[in-house]
Design a protein that fits this description.
The protein contains 9 helices and 10 strands. The protein is α/β, with parallel strands linked by helices and 256 residues long. The longest helix has 13 residues.
Length: 256
């Protein structure tokens, strides 16, 4: 079994990496800054590192240089970054790849298997787990967040089990998309441009008289704690695991 070390300072992305790569048959460990990444690699000895560029304590380049030049570790590295133009000098190096965020999970998996072809292309599990059961009725969910990585993560998780997903990145986009898409549930960030999640809530409930269930997914749940007293409102603190997200969605949609 190949071992992967994922280095990223976004906890939601790390949660996704853990589940996604474990399901794909890899052993996975994670780190959230440059120092932890170097220490973890010395202990874990990963076969491949997925490395964010902008991480605390020195950044991804510091990790790369320390491993390659000081520790003489030739471990393959995939830089996952929203700014690939900042890495023009590494793309031609041996066992180094650069992909742009937000990344399609299947594209990332294909790149991992390209770099690690022998064992990663192993025969499929003779007893694979059954695929997730899609709901009999396709519910529509609107996901609103100004973090593109979270939009992609939630879309991947929820569409995979049968929900129809659309997204918005600010309060104005959320209300506009709500009126055209008419979702059965809204997953709503609080701190975002053009008014924030509380403004969206007030517009939907007071002006549009909407009773659509709302799941607040936020790093500051205390700012909307009072809204949790309303019917069809749940407030959860980021980062959400896959299981917690799906459970909360199904509960609000009253799915068995």
């Amino acid at each position: 079994m190949y071992k992967i070390l994922a280095v990223e300072d976004n906890p939601a992305i790390l949660d996704f990496y853990r589940e996604f790569f474990a399901e794909a048959g890899f052993e996975i460990q994670t780190a959230e800054d440059a120092i932890s990444a170097i220490t973890k690699q010395q202990q874990f000895k990963a076969d491949l590192i997925i490395l964010d560029l902008n991480i605390p304590a020195g950044g991804g380049i510091k990790v790369f240089e320390t491993l390659r030049h000081h520790l003489m570790d030739p471990v393959p590295i995939i830089f996952s970054t929203g700014k690939p133009e900042m890495l023009p000098n590494v793309t031609n190096l041996h066992n180094v790849s650069v992909i742009r965020k937000p990344t399609d999970p299947q594209v990332l998996l294909a790149e991992v298997r390209r770099i690690l072809p022998e064992r990663a292309a192993q025969a499929p599990d003779p007893n694979p787990p059954p695929p997730p059961q899609a709901p009999a009725v396709i519910f529509k969910i609107l996901v609103v967040d100004d973090d593109i990585s979270i939009l992609q993560l939630y879309t991947e998780i929820l569409s995979k089990i049968g929900f129809e997903i659309q997204t918005a990145e600010d309060a104005i986009g959320a209300v506009t998309k709500y009126q055209s898409f008419k979702p059965d549930l809204i997953i709503l960030d609080v701190d975002m441009p053009a008014g924030g999640g509380r403004k969206v809530f007030e517009r939907l409930r007071l002006q549009l008289a909407s009773s659509t269930p709302i799941l607040f997914s936020t790093g500051s749940p205390e700012s909307v704690a009072s809204l949790a007293k309303n019917i069809n409102v749940t407030v959860l603190k980021k980062p959400l695991t896959r299981e917690l997200l799906i459970s909360a969605v199904k509960k609000l949609l009253q799915m068995a």
